[in-house]
Amino acid sequence: MSHLDYTTLKALVLSTAVRSDLSAEVAGFVRLAEGMIRREVRAMETRTTLLEADRITVGEGRYTLPDTIQEVRVIYGTVDEDSYPLENVGLHGIRMLPADADPLHYAIVGGTIEIRGVPATDTEFEIVGIGWPDPLDTTAQNDLLEFHEAIYIYGSLFHLYQYTQDFELAQSALSVYTDARDKLNALIGRKLGGNSTLPAYNFGHIHTSRGY
Which residue from 4, 92, 132, 133 puts its CA 20 to 30 A from 185's CA? Predict the structure, then answer.
């Protein structure tokens, strides 16, 4: 089983349970599994692109941060196909820079990011951060499903069996999910270092890091 997407995941869950009659409910099982995953799996390193559509006001350098980003680690811009990191200078530092400066600096302000100078229209930036992939009802595939599919499969099966009141099968699915969850948490912990990373989807405050 590899390279699953949302459609094939739902089909696999139904075929594994031999319950094609639950095709109308399977999206709900996946959604419940994602809720369980986000409560129990540590946030992981993720990459996303800041697009023109994220710009708050035309002609300004303020953007809405994707809500999948919990902590910004580094932001990259591109000039003539060469990538460069922007410097985090904080809110006071960003306000000291003129709008006609080169877009080399940024500051995080709540759930927004301000870049100075003002990037040209359609400029894109790559954000490397700590967060979570998009939920599957908004995207066909994400990194968690691609590389850790057992978490999705058995988390969804757990909720399917709960729905059908097959509690022994639910417990068996939960055991496989829990084992996969624990292994992923250990892997993320080794990659990110320590246990200081906040749980996924705790977006009360956006943190920034100078670790890259």
Answer: 4
